[in-house]
Amino acid sequence: MREESLALESQRDIYHYIQDNPGTHLRKISRELDCSLSTLRYHLDFLEQKGLIVSSKERNLKVYFAAGELGSKDKKISPLLQQKRFRDIILVILLNPGLTHENISEKLSLKPSTLSKYIKILEERQIIEHERVGREKRYHALNEKLIIKLLLLYRRSFWDSSVDHVLEIYFEM
Question: Which domain holds residue 168?
Answer without folding.
Answer: 76-172
